[in-house]
Amino acid sequence: MPAIDEARDEAVAAVQTEGASQVAQATAQRELAEAAAALSEENADAAKNALTSGPRPLELVQGIYGIVGTVRFVSTYLGPLVRLRRSSDNTERDFGPAAGGDWVDTAEITAWLAGATASVKTFYDQRGFKHWTQTSNATQPALTISGTFAWATFTAQQNFQPTAAWGGFARYKDAVSYSLLAKVDAAFTTGRPIVWFSQGTAGTARRVALEIDSDLRVRGNSTTHDNFTGGYLTPQSDPLILNTWFRVLHRTNFRGGANSVIANGLEKSIVMNEVVKTPDTSSLSVRFNNTNPSGLPISIAGFVAWDRQLTNDEATFADAELAKYAPGYVAPTVPPLIWLFGDSRFQETQIPDPNQRIQKVLADSFNPYRRVQNQAVAGTVITSARDALLSRTIGASEVVLVQSGINTDLEDTDANHSAYISQFQEMYDYMPAGKRIGFNTVVPQQSAVTGTSRNTNITAFNNLLRAAFPNNTIELAQAMSTYGGNTTGAPPAAISNDDLHPNALGVSAVVAPTQKAFIESKGW
């Protein structure tokens, strides 16, 4: 092969020129080329698959020292995911992802099996360090195929344990984080570790485990004792659901910090004190479902470990991304964005606590939570609100709410009414099909009570607004003016910060609920 021939020629040239050091370097290059060629030939079926677009999200979290599974997690990995053993004749074969995908090629496996079943002999480490191999046929987990998905299914006596230090490092030193995508297939009576790390000899050992009890609650255990006693135990998670895919991320640090476990997005943690004794330099042992007297009835699709304690943000990100690999995963629907355009009635700088302003209160009032973007500016005239909207690209499912109108322009005179309606029309026309826009009726000043010329003018404008946009008018003025049984025709003092603006109660009790009710009435 060209790569091998080139490396061999370099070795010969090195003898003639640079001496022994170059010989050693060129020989090492030749050995690497031979290994790569052998892997390419042996796993031609896996290597033929082109990469899907990458990188994968999990590999963005730095420090991975081992990652295995029946799905490709690493974008640059072209090798096989698993080595299978066929039950009918004990023939073994490697299998990689299906063409154009990341899950192991179930169609090719099914054809190869020809009605037989398969056991998983090896999980290949997608970082290329140490693979997981179970040489005992009796304790190899079965491969379960479901459509385009496949995973390893363990019974009580089946397990994996790499025979040498796992990963690119001799030991995990002070910290480790790891995450698992799995499901419990049957009830069991005795709790035990799902996966555990062990490093060091008696008296110097550090052990980390993910444990599960018979009530399907998991917890993380970090200890310096050989039998996992006297360690740091996280609080137990909420119960998992039998036969349902779950993911758990455990992270710990023997130099002090959090010992935490995140189960399906919910974290439980305790604070660890620093452990002063340092383990020896013996190899790191990683075992999956290998406990006495027996293991667990459990399936695994993926496992990843990092050589450090992930940050809170990294752990949350990794957990959310691993969830997307669960067979049958359905991406959550992202609720449409809500835009607010207008003046100080939406900006609400008069309310000092941002958590009590319309943007936060309105967003939190929805279940699930709705994203709200506030583009309002104090003192904005309608032309400014219009221009702000027209400068944005509004999605077809997004909602726009408008609260704009200088009261002196509309209350002191009716000369500006038609101009305002015309500019509202421009905003309406700019919206995409479906016209998901709502215009709030202009709220009178607190002093503009019924019978005053200001109240008469503002009422006339709001009537024009209703006539022009009968399906897109939000009755905020009426809601504010009648709060608490008020009959003055203007907002009562209880919900007013001043003559013009609502206070925090006005926002939470009237403004936000009125916007929400309008959106929900439209099915937006």
Automatic annotation (TrEMBL):
Residues 72-133 form the Alpha-L-arabinofuranosidase B catalytic domain. Residues 23-50 form a coiled coil. GO terms for biological process: arabinan metabolic process. It comes from the Bacteria. Keywords: Coiled coil. Transmembrane segments: none annotated. InterPro entries: A-L-arabinofuranosidase_B_cat, SGNH_hydro_sf. The keyword Coiled coil applies. This is Alpha-L-arabinofuranosidase B catalytic domain-containing protein. GO terms for molecular function: alpha-L-arabinofuranosidase activity; hydrolase activity, acting on ester bonds.
